[in-house]
Amino acid sequence: MNKNIGFIGCGNMGSAMISGIVKAEIVPSDRIYVCDHHENNFDKVKEYNVNTTTNVIEMVQKVDILILSVKPYVYESVISQIKEDIKKDVIVVCIAAGKSIEQVENAFEKKVKVVKAMPNTPALVLEAMSAVSFNDLIEEVEKEEILKIFSGFGKVEVVKEELMDAVTAVSGSSPAYVYMMIEAMADAAVKQGMPRKQAYVFASQAVYGASKMVLETHQHPGQLKDAVCSPSGTTIEAVGKLEETGFRSSIIQAMDACYEKSKRMK
Ligand SMILES: NC(=O)C1=CN([C@@H]2O[C@H](COP(=O)(O)OP(=O)(O)OC[C@H]3O[C@@H](n4cnc5c(N)ncnc54)[C@H](OP(=O)(O)O)[C@@H]3O)[C@@H](O)[C@H]2O)C=CC1
Ligand SMILES: O=C(O)[C@@H]1CCC=N1
């Protein structure tokens, strides 16, 4: 792609996307520009030979697609710093939880091309799940370019902007819940005698394989669960205990809390 892509903020999500974009060869690494206010934050991307700078003005003047990968509460101050210096027709990509397209447009105090996106950190291993919504200034060819970037490091779907809080709960934040489950599974295996390192491999490969089964067989997850549960077998004992201890309800309540927090961040 013949575009310069800039990132403001080289933290967990920004560096995962940079890594994904480089690994997927969406643009050559010399077309990626990264700005952060602390030099040592560039350590996360130093292996990729991207352009790094602490001078945000110098950076935004060079980029065609600008990804704002800072925390939501610094968006306004970052935008007020750069709004006079962005290139005409730059596409601004907002990945912040809770921030709306309208809030980003208002912060720039003019109509700018805005993409609201919600990726997740598995971008680092090219397995992100991302959602994007566009404002009305983004042209068809630009939509294709944005989709090409996000699909380079995982799956992407265009959604209505009002779904973004739900997306945050189901994919943006959800790797954290899954890591907690893997950690708990490994703890149990360690309790039962398995070495810790081996337990992480067994637990995470089981989660990975189960996810792949849902995605590739297109069977209902309940049907796949039933196929694991032998009559009077071991699995149904575990399933009974999960129901008794509120596993499903716990996930639903956690995701509701996540969704409500995202809504409150507007
Ligand atoms: N983490 C995730 O899984 C996901 C995050 N997001 C969104 O991505 C955004 C970034 O989150 P995340 O990567 O986790 O956060 P991080 O804190 O890890 O990254 C933010 C980076 O921006 C730097 N920074 C802060 N202020 C400035 C500034 N004024 N100019 C330049 N750089 C600055 C920070 O430096 P320092 O820390 O040294 O202050 C840090 O390196 C958030 O808006 C979040 O909602 C979206 C989807 C998933
Ligand atoms: O926790 C957060 O606010 C961010 C947004 C989605 C994942 N991490």
From TrEMBL:
Assigned EC number: 1.5.1.2
Reaction(s) catalysed (UniProt annotation): L-proline + NADP(+) = (S)-1-pyrroline-5-carboxylate + NADPH + 2 H(+); L-proline + NAD(+) = (S)-1-pyrroline-5-carboxylate + NADH + 2 H(+)
Subcellular location: Cytoplasm
Domain Pyrroline-5-carboxylate reductase dimerisation: 161-265
Enzyme class: oxidoreductase
Keywords of the record: Amino-acid biosynthesis, Cytoplasm, NADP, Oxidoreductase, Proline biosynthesis
Annotated Pyrroline-5-carboxylate reductase catalytic N-terminal domain residues: 5-98
Any GO BP annotation: L-proline biosynthetic process
GO molecular function: pyrroline-5-carboxylate reductase activity
Domain of life of the organism encoding this protein: Bacteria
Keyword Plastid: no
Listed InterPro entries: 6-PGluconate_DH-like_C_sf, NAD(P)-bd_dom_sf, P5C_Rdtase_cat_N, P5CR_dimer, Pyrroline-COOH_reductase
One GO term describing the cellular component: cytoplasm
Ligand binding (NADP(+)): 8-13
Function: Catalyzes the reduction of 1-pyrroline-5-carboxylate (PCA) to L-proline.
Protein family: Belongs to the pyrroline-5-carboxylate reductase family.
HAMAP family linked to this entry: P5C_reductase
Full protein name: Pyrroline-5-carboxylate reductase
Origin species: Floccifex porci
